[in-house]
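Kindly inspect both lines:
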Amino acid sequence: MLDRKNISCLIIDDEAIAREIIATHLSKINNITIIASCSNAMEAFNVINSHNIELIFLDINMPEISGISFAKSINKNVKIIFTTAYRDYAVDGFELQAVDYLLKPISFERLLKAVNTYFEVYRNPKLNVSQQAESTNFMFVRSERRMIKIDFEAIVYIESYSDYIKIHLATETVTTREKISAIEVKLPKHQFIRIHRSYIIAIPQISSFTNEYITIKDKALPISRSYKKDVLNILEQY
């Protein structure tokens, strides 16, 4: 069951009408307590220092301190729903692991969806990152300043090169600056398996395997000694 007890929220936007619209929407949703509504980041810092804020509705394009800079400076346990009139900041929003990214004008239905996402993902103690992967069929990765949607079924295998990885798909290869261990936790465990410190493979893509190698699309990928026992145990179940 989701944890629907009251959450303490903060609204930050330099436009009064924008703050009023969000506050009006939130007043229609149960379990939401608006602690304050601030017109700039400095006001918001004072509120955060004196209250236990759990969720912030944050504008991005603000004077002096932008919403992006503000988000980078606060405790990462405080979750953020970005509210902005500009699509160009979506990549920054994803990188900061925002709960959601709302484009103005914001409808009640769209804001309600964002709040429900917060409850489902961040207030459910039984739902971790790998379990979230099991319940969806894609992920987003950053490549060349864009967030690219990667369908799990399209992944053939993933290859690590120190501080970046190549995601080999059926029709293309996507390169992203990420650790392979960070990508591994996003993948559904029933569909992928780590066979080497440098390789994760899609189980449905396997053509054949031995005790030493797994063949995928005529490419032989090595099974390292440290992963061999677990890999063979899993594959022998199929």
In short: The first strand starts at residue 7 and ends at 12. The radius of gyration is 21 Å.
